[in-house]
Amino acid sequence: MNTTMKRHLSSEILPSGLPPVASPDDEAPAVAANGRRIGEVILDLQNISLSFGGVKALTDISFDVREHEIRAIIGPNGAGKSSMINVINGVYHPQKGRILYRGQPRAGMHPSAIARQGIARTFQNIALFKGMTVLDNIMTGRNTKMRSGLLSNAMWWGAARNEEIEHRRKVEQVIDFLEIQHIRKTPVGRLPYGLQKRVELARALAAEPHMLLLDEPMAGMNVEEKQDMCRFILDVNDQFGTTIVLIEHDMGVVMDISDRVVVLDYGKKIGDGTPEEVMGNEDVIKAYLGTSH
Ligand SMILES: Nc1ncnc2c1ncn2[C@@H]1O[C@H](COP(=O)(O)OP(=O)(O)OP(=O)(O)O)[C@@H](O)[C@H]1O
Ligand SMILES: [Mg+2]
């Protein structure tokens, strides 16, 4: 990927449609290395520890995510990256530590409640309904937005019908945005891997998230597919102001599109800063030289 892929964002903070929130630490908004202003801290992870039986997946990890930024999580295999995403969206509950989302402590919250707070995700191993069409899979991303249940469907069929039309309209917007009109009626299982990854992104976007958690969205893709995916991630961040937490192994991608990077190794945080800062960090270099990455 060349440097033209790098973002060229305005210095304005993008409108998120949300009321302004005070940073838990009352920190001033930061300015990213590329000159773009990013917002205040919206997700604050404090001293997170998570273990599975004897396996310590995460040990005393603290970092934050600021509104509108692209925050990468990197590290060798088994470092705890996916576990961290699973903690953020409530699949795993850490034994120790505190999570603040928009300044509010969040303990023991169910993934569906977290999704309703505006956090959507994609999975390291694609989690789509392979026998269903692209359109129907993306429609499942609207679940958190659906108000009418069976009873209201029966009583207020007009309202439910309007709601359905609105959901379909949003889904079609996402389909246009990600340029997948040509496959909208294709069963997902028949698509090549790279397109399935894009459909998974589409399903997450259909929820109109404020924060998007992407677990290796480019794994297994060729160079051209990676460039497309980078462009879509930058466009989502740019046009919708979506905050993005991204797990990625490709250092070129990380350097090109992320504002800040947190580095994990054996469940511990070994680096945190701009891409340039972490790439110059001795511990990070050692962790990477000691592995196949
Ligand atoms: N559900 C689980 N049960 C038991 N151990 C788990 C579970 N999930 C993760 N682990 C362990 O926690 C550690 C961190 O795993 P995790 O999947 O978070 O790493 P990762 O950084 O995402 O790795 P990769 O780059 O291979 O995806 C590993 O030792 C893993 O085996
Ligand atoms: Mg993983």
Oligomer: single chain
Bound molecules: adenosine-5'-triphosphate, magnesium ion
Rg for CA atoms: 19 Å
- Could you give the count of β-strands? 10
Order of strands side by side in the largest beta sheet? 6-7-8-3-9-10
Number of helices: 10
Distance between the termini: 18 Å
CATH topology of the largest domain: Rossmann fold
**Largest sheet at a glance?**
6 strands, mixed
Question: Which class of the largest domain in CATH terms?
Answer: Alpha Beta
Overall structural domain count: 2
Q: Mean pLDDT across all residues, rounded?
A: 85
- What series of H and E elements makes up the topology? EEEHEEHEHHHHEHEHEEHH
Helix content: 25-40%
Question: What is the overall silhouette?
Answer: globular
SS class: alpha/beta
Architecture per CATH nomenclature, i.e. the level-2 architecture of the largest domain:
3-Layer(aba) Sandwich
Strand-residue proportion: 15-25%
Uncertain segments: 1-28
Domain ABC transporter: 43-291
Pfam family, one: ABC_tran
Protein name: ABC-type amino acid transport system protein, ATPase component protein
Keywords: ATP-binding, Cell membrane, Membrane, Nucleotide-binding, Transport
